[in-house]
Amino acid sequence: MAIELQQVKAIEDWQAYHAIRRHVLWELRGLDGYDDRHADEHKPAHIPLLLRKDGLAVGTVRLDLSNDRTGVVRLVAIRRDYQRQGLGRILMCEVEKLSAKHGLCRLELHAAPDAVPFYEKLGWAVIDADRSDPLMAKEIQSPAHDAGSGDGWRSPL
Questions:
Q1: What percent of the chain has pLDDT over 70?
Q2: Which helix (H) or strand (E) holds 46?
Q3: Is 79 strand, coil or helix?
Q4: Is 84 helix (H, G, I), strand (E, B) or coil?
Q5: Predicted pLDDT of residue 18
Q6: Tens-digit pLDDT string for the chain (157 aa)
Q7: CA Rg, the chain, in Å?
Q8: Quick check: 59 and 91 in contact, CB under 8 A?
Q9: Are 119 and 78 spatial neighbours (Cβ–Cβ below 8 Å)?
């Protein structure tokens, strides 16, 4: 099993990225109005990422960098037929590694209420629960080295 997190660049990757997000985060939640042409996707400090398993696009996330060493994790989505297989955990671990490489010390995200327990298991803490999408944060550390975990997945970022 090969799992890879890659920055979205090619047209086909953008199509897969938006299809996963639109379906998982909008359609399955009964929402509409997804905008695959939103300007935020292409800001220089925003890094759209696609998770692939054996070459198939299965998940997405966007990491927004800032100048204050805090990054924002946005729009985490794993295809429904690939959920509960540890891919969300791998995705978030890779985002943390990428964040550390960019000099970030802290990550924040606005979680869907039903996703809060998932993030708490990964060491995230709720810092503002008085919202429809609770604000969560996690302190991160620079990795001692960039070695792979040996379990068949890698990040080219």
A1: 90
A2: strand 46-53
A3: coil
A4: coil
A5: 97
A6: 799 999 999 999 999 999 999 999 999 999 999 999 999 999 999 999 999 999 999 999 999 998 889 999 999 999 999 999 999 999 999 999 999 999 999 999 999 999 999 999 999 999 999 888 999 999 998 654 344 443 333 444 5
A7: 15
A8: yes
A9: no
Dihedral sign (CA 35, 38, 42, 47): negative
Residue with tokens 């946005």: 74
